[in-house]
Fold Thymidine phosphorylase.
Amino acid sequence: MDAIDVLRAKRDGVPLGADQIRWVIQAYTDGAVPDEQMSALLMAVFFRGMTADELAVWTQAMIDSGERKDLSSLGRPTADKHSTGGVGDKTTLPLAPLVAACGVAVPQLSGRGLGHTGGTLDKLEAIPGWRADVHEEAYLQQLRDVGAVICAAGHDLAPADKKLYALRDVTGTVESIPLIASSIMSKKIAEGADALVLDVKTGSGAFMKDPEASRELARTMVGLGEAAGVRTVALVTAMDRPLGRAAGNAVEVAESVEVLAGGGPADVVELTLALAREMLAGAGRPDVDPAEALRDGRAMDVWRRMIAAQGGDPDAPLPQPAERHVVTAPATGTLTRLDAYALGVAAWRLGAGRARKEDPVSAAAGVVWTAGVGEQVTAGQPLLELQTDDPSRIPRALAALEGAVGVDTDDVPLPLVLDRI
Ligand code: URA
């Protein structure tokens, strides 16, 4: 087979055959098809899209480039969740131990943040001693003993995606529904859970800014999950403003612990419970009430054991920033705008995120805010606190926040959960 024939066909709008797709994904993973030819094919897919049949084969080929895990030896149902990424979206942290406390094992292979969206592993690494790398044996043992693992994916999980995602990142081919859907779902299906809940974000801080595009991405991913035998549901949720009251690393761990202790911001609690109910229902436990496991401390107990199992000290003080800079409310009235993208960029510029995969992140950097959208504020009250280890980062973070806060504007906030697919 020849890569030029494959990319010419896609360029000209001719659907690819299953053999062509399987060959090109494997040959690219093995290094036999070079980046320049794959770049051309990705750009052709970007403009031409894929048929449902092409997408199913493409996704399966990405799964087959590595290993699909078998978790049947655990002897209990398994469920996982994936968020398409947002600002202040720490729900994985309380959710995994919460669902595990309800009797469903949660094998969560997570990623790191890139750009303005945070990464679960970066947040958890703010906990002194906590390690993201867990070997296969220890991973299964922790799922048996504790019921939840949040860790880095190994090299055998959809290796085609690692190469393809890095190439898409530098060729302007990230924002394509079939390429995003196949990238996410190949990894999630390969992870081996019985049920999957997708949190598809929409709004300024999300990949997909427009609700209709987010719904289409959700429908595409649910279709791929169901076709692969994974019970899959998607919630389309608001990312026009950030979630909770904190965006960063240690600050998001602190907020997650508040939720596990029965407190925390109402939107984080509501979304965590909504996702937990979907995971439990997908795993065959629709009658279990996760709110009970938050109230009676069982979820907190699993959190502590989950952190300790990966070397972390759940009682250790979290890193504190060297510098704090307060931004006050510009007027008295109802806070109607707190732009997710702007806050995400500010947290990133303060050191919470990275521009390139190899960059380090600062555990103590981030932004916290004292009021959420819809709440009353008074002119001059402290509204945002910028936290960083490096004061020279503050001016660029402030620049990102220009126009991000609005009082009594005509912005209409999205409902927290827009749709269920
Ligand atoms: N996250 C992924 O894993 N892949 C994409 O393509 C986009 C977001």
Remarks:
- The domain at 3-49 is CATH 1.20.970.10 (Transferase, Pyrimidine Nucleoside Phosphorylase; Chain A, domain 3).
